[in-house]
Amino acid sequence: MQTTVRPSAGEGAIAVPQTQAGAPESLKARIRAVRWEAEGINTYELEPLPGERFPPFTAGAHINVRLTPGLTRSYSLANDPSQRDRYEIGVQLAPESRGGSRHIHENWRPGQVVEISAPRNNFPLEEGATRTILIAGGIGITPMLSMIARLEALGRRWELHYVSRRRAIAGYLDRLEEHLPANVLFDEEPGGLRLDLAAVVAAAPPEAHLYCCGPAGMIQAFEALAAGRPPGTVHVEYFSADVEVAIGGDYVLELRRSGKTVAVQDGETMLDALLSAGANIGFACSEGVCGTCQVGVLEGVPDHRDQFLTEEEKRANRTVMVCCSGSRTPKLVLDI
Ligand code: FES
C-alpha cells in the first residue's frame, strides 16, 4: 500500500522517520517476483543486487520508492522482518492514482532494477505490549502483516480486525487464514457485517496497544473513539491523503542556519520554493502524510495542512511539513 505514517496519537513527541543507523539512503533493488493478491492488488518482491544486502527493518516500516524523477511514493513492508533477503510491498492500483500505483502496475516487471530508500519506521510496533489490537481497512492491511509476523515470533497476544468492501478486492486473505485471531469482514457483500470500531476500542484493556491503518475516515473515527486511552497506546497510519496543499504563497521563509531568505510565490508550495533555492529537503509523499519533509520552525505560525502531526503538535508549531503546509504569518523562520 502507499503509506503514510504517524506516531501514537497520545504521544507528545515529534516523530522523525527512523532509518537504520548506517544504512545508505538510496538502494538498488531487483524485482524478483510480482504476485497477484486480489483485484487491483499486487505484491512486488524486491531483492538486493548480487553481492549486496538489504538493511534490516522492523515491523511497521516502509520504504520510499523512486518511480520517475520527481515521483516518489512510500509503501509499507509487508513481509516478515526476520527475512533479510527481500522486501515485499503491496500496491493497490488506485483509480484516482496520480502516477504512483499506476506507474508500478503498468511498468514494474520481474528482473527490472528499481531505486528505493532504506526502510524507515514511523509506525513501530510496541514489542513489549502484552496485548496488541490491529485494525486495518482495505490495503491498510500491509503494515499489519509484518506486525503479525513479529508478534507471532515474539509469542505475543494479538488480534486483527480487517475490513474490506468485498472479498474479491481483499488482499492477503490466504496469509490471514493461518491465524485464528483474525476477524475479517466484507461490509459491502450481501449480508456482510460492518466493523464495529466503537466496540473494538471500548473492549480494549488499558494496557493494550491499538494500531489502525486504513482510509482517512476510518482513522479519524478511530482516533476520536480512542481519544481517552492512555497516552502512547494509540497508533495510526494514513495511506491516502485528503489534504488541500497550500499554494497561496505571499510569505517568506528565513532559513536560519543557512542564512537565506526565500519568497514563496503564489502557485508554489513551501517545498517548491525551498528546492528552487537549493535547500536540501527530503520528501516522499508530497501530500502531508509520510513525515519525510518535516522541518523545525523557530518563529512564525505555519498553516498546517498535513495528516502527519497530531493536533497537539500542530498547535505547538515547532515543526512543519513543507510539502503541503503554508504560513499564517508573513514570515516563517525555519531551522535549516
Ligand atoms: S513529503 Fe510526505 S509529509 Fe511531506
UniProtKB/TrEMBL annotation:
- Identify the SUPFAM superfamilies for this entry: 2Fe-2S ferredoxin-like (SSF54292), Ferredoxin reductase-like, C-terminal NADP-linked domain (SSF52343), Riboflavin synthase domain-like (SSF63380)
Spell out the Gene3D superfamilies in the cross-references. Answer: 3.10.20.30, Nucleotide-binding domain of ferredoxin-NADP reductase (FNR) module (3.40.50.80), Translation factors (2.40.30.10)
Question: Does this UniProt record's set of keywords contain Cell membrane?
Answer: no
Which UniProt keyword terms apply here? 2Fe-2S, Flavoprotein, Iron, Iron-sulfur, Metal-binding, Methyltransferase, Oxidoreductase, Transferase
Please, which domain of life does this record's source organism belong to?
A: Bacteria
Q: Which PROSITE patterns match?
A: 2FE2S_FER_1, 2FE2S_FER_2, FAD_FR
One Pfam family hit: Fer2
Domain FAD-binding FR-type: from-to ranges: 24-126
Ranges for domain 2Fe-2S ferredoxin-type: 241-336
Give the UniProt record's GO annotations in the biological process aspect: methylation
Q: Which GO terms describe its molecular function?
A: 2 iron, 2 sulfur cluster binding; metal ion binding; methyltransferase activity; oxidoreductase activity
According to UniProt, the name of this protein is Vanillate O-demethylase ferredoxin subunit
